[in-house]
Amino acid sequence: MYAQVIDTGSDRVRAIGEMPEEEKVFMARIEKGEKIEPKDWMPEGYRKTLIRQIGQHAHSEVVGQLPEGNWITRAPTLERKAILLAKVQDEAGHGLYLYSAAETLGISRDEMTELLHAGKMKYSSIFNYPTLNWADIGAVGWLVDGAAIMNQVALQRTSYGPYSRAMIRICKEESFHQRQGYDLLIKMCQGSPEQKAMAQDAMNRFWYPALMMFGPSDKDSVHSEQSMAWKIKINTNDELRQKFVDQTVPQAKYLGLTIPDENLVWNEERGAHDFTQPDWNEFFDVIAGNGPCNKDRMAARVNAWKDGAWFREGLAAYAKKLPLRKQAV
Ligand code: FAQ
Known about the structure:
Oligomer: single chain
Strand content: under 5%
Shape: globular
Helix content: 55-70%
Bound molecules: Phenylacetyl coenzyme A
Number of helices: 13
Number of strands: 2
Strand order of the largest sheet: 1-2
Structural class: mainly alpha
């Protein structure tokens, strides 16, 4: 169902000697750390890879509103409700920055939405897992936003200007998201034994899906080599996953939560934690459309798109009328 239709043509990294002159100039700019802007010459594979990655990221932000939106009406206090509402609205905003960045590459937001709805573009695997208890909202902020930021901080230095600038703004907001999730879990972990048990249950269910957010292990990553040569990606999937584990272990300890991995241990020699990899069969199954919530998530998005048609049509009709009215005046 989720076959890759945005053919990036980027499977093979070419040597500089094999490149036409304009591509050599492009690669020299990338090497120097210059930003590539929308009107600059770029290889077709670079453009398509960006549309695939930025579009997928935009879809993730929008679909990512659903698991949290599920708890807005059931937030335990007015303050928590206001925080959650603000966070969910931020995710919509992040989607908009990212759709706008992708639009500079020659694809419209409508086209990307249609590709998503047709199962021809992806969104992050994580949002196919349900939020079953209130502590899950803490886990989404702490672990899911935490994993997202770990990747996005590096993406601020990505080579495509509009993407890099969107990332700078998004990272500022995501850091608030992560802190609110951690704060929520501190309160629950210092609360009643039942609340602590809810937090541990959330940790148990979100740990491995959070690790999966960084993508398959490097040996199975299709795009990393070319994307890193183009500085679209700055780190490999495994590098970021390792950094995330190393950052999260002391935070879990402070909360008094146990990470559900018996093999998690500090490796003095490597200066990093050894840990159990997620179940990669589950990951590939989820991104193939068979996760616990894939069907619900897509149904919710398709229905929202249909329900909003009258509003989009109204805006388009108004935009058409405006210059005519101005002319008449
Ligand atoms: N889920 O060759 P690679 C957030 C696919 S934002 C689904 O390694 P790549 C905010 C990949 O597309 C979270 N599919 O791919 C928030 C490819 O398939 P394709 C989103 C995945 O692109 C928080 C295939 O596997 N962040 O959470 C996933 O070089 C809380 C092979 O993989 C971004 O999108 C996955 N996890 O590296 C919102 C960041 N991983 O396309 C609400 C930008 C891999 O050939 C609440 N994206 N695949 O059919 C990236 O950095 C990269 O795209 C990676 C994957 C690192 C995700």
